[in-house]
């Protein structure tokens, strides 16, 4: 039998969102805001919210199962599960719970945290395991339930986020569909966007004290994050285009992290990519963090907009700060 090559194909996608949605008018009953303010500044009209009993693992597994089905695989054929999330059910990791939920009993599973860049960072991580010949079939999930970590009295942040999950299956292939990537981090700007642990000192015995506490809800400097995204994202995309020896004219779709329509449009304008090539579903879901790229990808694939062989530039950006771009072609 012919051995599969060391290239990567992305052969299936899936997504899942909670059933409950809250529109901007509903949100204006919780904080002092309006549909007009939110829609004109962000493009967001509504967001999905997980009910108290929905686990991240269940939401992630639903998206994952759809991706596995589309890839025509059985869960037992998956070698590696990467779960990109910042909102785990369990700080020790949630990927194993997804593995159990799927019955993917051959797979090794672990979490990967890179906030809204999690999917792009996960894509590149998955590719390394495939390119080295270690694994054949990798399931990559981006899933977040940020509604659990938003301060619902802070109108500057709570209007932006929503819950969701998206997944893809990557497979070793003779034909390499991941054309290039560029990943970046800058911890010196970490303070612009946080979901940070806040320890309270607790005296133990003698002079020994430890820190115990909880995570503080999301804090964000919106203007700085906006500036960072509009400046840095085009840079990494240009680098990835250069490495792939492609011009923007050869790109079929620009698939950015769905944070804000203004960011999507500004990045598209800087790259001279026409707006009709910019994928956007944030009106329906808001910013779903690590889920936003695979969720939008899956919708476009299932609607038949993204077709086999289409060339897609994707880029994530967010807390860390982290940002990164990858260029891939859809399909086997
Ligand atoms: N409704 C009504 N008024 C509001 C709201 C709201 N929801 N939020 C803020 N305002 C008010 C402010 O109080 C301020 O009023 P003031 O001038 O009287 O003080 C005014 O609107 C302007 O506030 P700004 O913060 O300057 O608004 P800005 O135009 O910057 O828009 C926004 C804010 C939409 C958050 C924008 O900065 C942005 O999109 N930034 C990027 C954020 C982002 O994408 N974050 C996610 C990154 S991904 C991740 O890793 C999670």
Number of separate domains: 2
For the termini, the CA-CA separation is 18 Å
Molecular shape = globular
Number of distinct beta strands: 15
Report the average pLDDT across residues: 96
Low-confidence stretches: none
Going by CATH, the homologous superfamily of the largest domain would be Thiolase/Chalcone synthase
Write out the strand line-up for the largest beta sheet, numbering strands in chain order. Answer: 1-7-6-4-5
Helix percentage range: 25-40%
The CATH topology of the largest domain corresponds to Peroxisomal Thiolase, Chain A, domain 1
Structural class: alpha+beta
Radius of gyration: 20 Å
Q: What's the story with the biggest beta sheet?
A: 5 strands, mixed
Number of helices: 10
* Percentage of residues in DSSP E strands: 25-35%
List each distinct ligand once: acetyl coenzyme *A
Give the SSE string: EEHHEHEHEHEHEEEEEEHEHHHEE
What is the correct CATH architecture of the largest domain?
3-Layer(aba) Sandwich
Q: So what's the CATH class of the largest domain?
A: Alpha Beta
Would you give an account of this structure?
This protein is an alpha+beta fold. It folds into 2 domains: 7-175, 3-Layer(aba) Sandwich (Peroxisomal Thiolase, Chain A, domain 1), CATH 3.40.47.10; 180-188 and 219-329, Thiolase/Chalcone synthase (Peroxisomal Thiolase, Chain A, domain 1, 3-Layer(aba) Sandwich), CATH 3.40.47.10. Helix content is 31%, strand content 28%. The chain has helices at 24-27, 35-42, 56-70, 95-102, 118-131, 155-158, 222-244, 261-271, 282-285, 292-302; strands at residues 7-16, 21-23, 46-48, 80-84, 108-112, 137-145, 163-173, 178-185, 193-194, 197-203, 209-215, 219-220, 253-256, 311-318, 322-329. It is globular, with a radius of gyration of 20 Å. Bound molecules: acetyl coenzyme *A.
């Amino acid at each position: 039998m012919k051995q599969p090559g060391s290239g990567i194909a992305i052969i299936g996608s899936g997504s899942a969102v909670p059933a409950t949605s809250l529109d901007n008018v509903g949100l204006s009953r919780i904080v002092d805001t309006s549909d007009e303010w939110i829609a004109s500044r962000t493009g967001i009209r509504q967001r999905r919210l997980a009910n108290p009993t929905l686990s991240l693992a269940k939401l992630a597994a639903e998206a994952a199962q759809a991706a596995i089905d589309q890839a025509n695989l059985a869960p037992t054929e998956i070698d590696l599960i990467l779960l990109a999330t910042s909102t785990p059910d369990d700080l020790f990791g949630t990927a194993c719970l997804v593995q159990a939920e799927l019955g993917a009993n051959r797979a090794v599973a672990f979490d990967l945290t890179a906030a809204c860049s999690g999917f792009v960072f996960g894509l590149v991580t998955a590719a390394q395991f495939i390119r080295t010949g270690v694994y054949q079939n990798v399931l990559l999930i981006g899933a977040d339930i940020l509604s659990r970590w938003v301060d619902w009295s802070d109108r500057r942040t709570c209007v932006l986020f929503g819950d969701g999950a998206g997944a893809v299956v990557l497979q070793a292939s003779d034909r390499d569909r991941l054309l290039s990537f560029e990943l970046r981090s800058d911890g010196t700007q970490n303070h612009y966007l946080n979901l940070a642990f806040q320890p309270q000192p607790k005296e133990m015995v003698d002079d020994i004290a430890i820190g115990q506490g909880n995570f503080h809800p999301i804090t964000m400097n919106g203007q700085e994050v906006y500036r960072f995204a509009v400046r840095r994202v085009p840079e990494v995309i240009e680098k990835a285009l250069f490495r792939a020896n492609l011009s923007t004219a050869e790109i079929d779709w620009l698939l950015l992290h769905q944070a804000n329509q203004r960011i999507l449009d500004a990045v598209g304008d800087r790259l001279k990519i026409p707006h009709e090539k910019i994928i956007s579903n944030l009106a329906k879901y808001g910013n779903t963090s690590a889920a936003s790229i695979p969720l939008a990808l899956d919708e476009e694939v299932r609607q038949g907009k993204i077709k086999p062989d289409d060339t897609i530039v994707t880029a994530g950006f967010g807390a860390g700060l982290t940002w990164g771009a990858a260029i891939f072609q859809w399909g086997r």
